[in-house]
Amino acid sequence: MVSVNNNGNSSSLIQVRGLNKTYHRADEQIQVLQGLNLDVDKGDFVAFMGPSGSGKTTLLNLLGGLDVPTAGAISVASDEITHMSSGKLTEWRARHVGFVFQTYNLIPVLTAFQNVELPLLLTRLSKSERRQHVETALSIVGLGNRTRHFPRQLSGGQEQRVAIARAIVSDPTFLLCDEPTGDLDRKSADEIMALIEELVAKHGKTVLMVTHDPVVAARAHTVLHLEKGVLVEGSKSRQSVTAGGVV
Fold first, then answer.
1. Full domain range(s) for residue 210
2. Residue 24, SS3 per DSSP
3. Where are the beta strands (DSSP E) in 41-118?
4. Is residue 96 a part of any domain in this protein?
5. What is the distance between the alpha carbons of residues 196 and 175, in angstroms, rounded to a whole number?
6. In what side-by-side order are the strands of the sheet with 28-40?
7. Please, what is the Cα angle at 245 between 9 and 242, to 5 degrees?
8. Which residue of 44, 55, 63, 78 lies most exposed, with the fewest beta carbons within 10 A?
9. Total domains, the chain
């Protein structure tokens, strides 16, 4: 269930209450988010839409612990992240959040395997355990036969698949996707969205996605609109499916 009201399910995976974000530019205050409330359950797939400057990416950055709010609270799986220290927030992000961006952010001199393995190098997993996780993640995204390929040897859609494998390799609590199809043609975009839908339906991932594309947004369970920093509930087209973890 997704709710933009204060009376959301107290057991929701993600709970946002009274979220405000204001930026200061010279003597000007720019209020990007205003009193935002949101509840997202495990296994939900939510798309955020809205004009440029409406606060979509700011919201994703706050949910992922990449930025801190001016006021309000964010809780994920009972962890209240708003007032965490920088060090604890870094640890929390590594355990709980997978990021997928419009630009794939792959390291050109590393193979697909090595790019996906990067988040695991900071864990206590052994080399064999890391290999198992990486091979599983690449298999899930359909690139089990591309482990030794470098980014320059892959298509844009394949590069984004590697980026998604990197995002899920540590089995995060939820995925944040910022325009994941923005650099892709329609065919590749459809393939990436089918993969994200599979991560939700088959592997129980919770996904929050920003997009300008209504065709892409329609693949989500719920579409929410941000208008001048205020969240407006949109359409609900599917029921979320909850399953086991990815790896």
1. 42-68+86-236
2. strand
3. 45-49, 71-76, 79-80, 97-101
4. yes
5. 10
6. 2-3, 28-40, 14-25, 71-76, 79-80
7. 40
8. 78
9. 1
Q: Give domain status of residue 211, yes or no.
A: yes
Which residue shows structure tokens 């190098």?
121
Residue given tokens 């001016």 in the structure block: 70
Report the chain's mean pLDDT, rounded to a whole number: 90
Cα–Cα distance between 223 and 228 in angstroms, integer? 17
DSSP state of 54: S
Bigger pLDDT: 11 vs 44: 44
Candidates 75, 69, 65, 3; CA nearest to 40 is 3
Instruction: Please write the tens of the pLDDT for every residue from 217-230.
Output: 999 999 999 988 88
Cα angle for residues 52, 57, 62 (degrees, 5° grid): 145
Strand ranges in the chain using DSSP code E only, listed in sequence order: 2-3, 14-25, 28-40, 45-49, 71-76, 79-80, 97-101, 174-178, 206-210, 222-227, 230-236
- Amino acid (1-letter code) at residue 6: N
Note the pLDDT of residue 82.
92
Query: Starting at the edge strand that comes first in sequence, how are the strands of the sheet with 45-49 ordered?
Result: 97-101, 174-178, 206-210, 45-49, 222-227, 230-236
The H-or-E segment that residue 63 falls in is helix 56-63
Is 26 inside a domain boundary? no
C-beta separation of 15 from 8 below 8 A: yes
Could you tell me if residue 155 is inside a domain?
A: yes
| pLDDT(64) > 50 | yes
Which residues, 6+ apart, have CB-to-CB distance to 62 below 8 Å?
19, 21, 33, 68, 69, 74
